[in-house]
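Task 17 of the worksheet. Students: predict the tertiary structure of the chain below and write it out as structure tokens. Keep your answer in the requested format; marks are given for formatting as well as content.
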Amino acid sequence: MSKAIRIHETGGPEVLRWEDVDVGVLQAGEVRLRQTAVGLNFIDTYHRRGLYPVDALPTVIGMEGAGVVEEIGENVHVFQVGDRVAYAGGPIGSYTEERRIPAARLVKLPDSIDSQHGAALMLKGLTTQYLVRRCYHVKPGDTILIHAAAGGMGLLVCQWAKHLGATVIGTVSTREKAELAASHGCDHPILYREEDFVERVRELTNGVGVPVVYDSVGRDTFDGSLDCQGVLTGRYDLLSPSPVTRCQIIRPVPKGTWPSPSSQHDHSRHSHRYQQDGHRQVARSVTCQLQDAADGP
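Model answer:
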């Protein structure tokens, strides 16, 4: 038996229960993982609240973790007992002390990356790598815009884009967040409550606009994000064939971003190399015991 956080119904934090769970019999292609750290992501609240339905209840939630391989199932040849590994993007069920998981979903952690960083940065690191290298290939001389630049994802995008030679513009809500974003590579923090970010972007780019906007806010910033695009002017009807057809609107999701285990492994190695080279910092590190997940850090 193992201890885990499970939900028997959807709702607020009060539905999270710390209880015994049966890890089950190891199947071919799986490993039994003793978890040493679990990543907390906003998608976990979607599963808990029922916004993203789970297959069945009760269930253990959580999409990201790191730990040590304790047992290997048949047809697993890449890992050995004792290997330190991490995973992100599912399968759901990381809020537990031990779990069975397909070996194909795991990547080995380098010795230089501890379990807490491995669990906390796996999903965010993979997403950042996708955003700055595949969604749009950021290159020296680019000027880019990042909304919520002082958030967990925003800080990583700021750092990686700056490392790639871009000029980074970021929107934030407070002066404290502006200082935080600036310390992580944001060249021009914009306090969006005090100034129009569209006008400021136009000013900073001499009216040219930016080739890419990373918008994790959505409704409140969407029209303005389009206004900041270098190829677009004016207001837009998304049902109209023009001029939105000249830009791409991409919403990364794990299944589409890393459609196969091999692609996830490749992107993970890229992300780990970047972190090992010392280019990426973790702005805030807050932890709590797994059984206290309902209370938060």
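Marker's comment: The helical segments are 42-49, 115-135, 152-163, 175-183, 197-204, 222-228, 254-257, 261-276. The mean pLDDT is 84.
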